[in-house]
Predict the structure.
Amino acid sequence: MDYFETIQGRHSVRAFVTKQVEEEKFRQIAEAVRSAPSAGNCQAYEVYVVRGEAGRRELVGAAWGQEFLAQAPVALVFCADTQRPAERYGSRGAELYCIQDATIACTFAMLAASALQLATVWVGAFDPNAVRKIVRAPAHMLPVAILPIGYAAETPQPTSRRPLSSVIREVA
């Protein structure tokens, strides 16, 4: 799929069929994550893969009842590694760069999944401490996004976007 078609065709999906994601497609998504740019090439993130039904059900609870997390056959939990960039960039690395790295990686995963005709939705509403416990991440890992991935059971309508004139600002 063409890159711009991928961007235009991507929509948030909150209903998934029970079909599993093929391992080859998952590997392609994982490689896209690994290819994501990062501050100083620190790659200050880790991705926790939740495939089991019990784990996905726990994520529903941590995400305040967002049931579609249990429907998708796989959920990726993107965590910012606050220690890795702090060694080089101090507090700015620990408080910002790692979050940017994790969110860029999640965006790459989301677009790769879309290019493979898989559905996703970015989940940011959750209790980070509960999610950290579910995926057994150490304290220095900050969960910043959950990305359920699967085959769509719905075709959402495109949502409106602000006009470019209210988004893009030219400066001197």
Notes: Residues 3-167 form a domain with the NADH Oxidase fold (CATH 3.40.109.10).
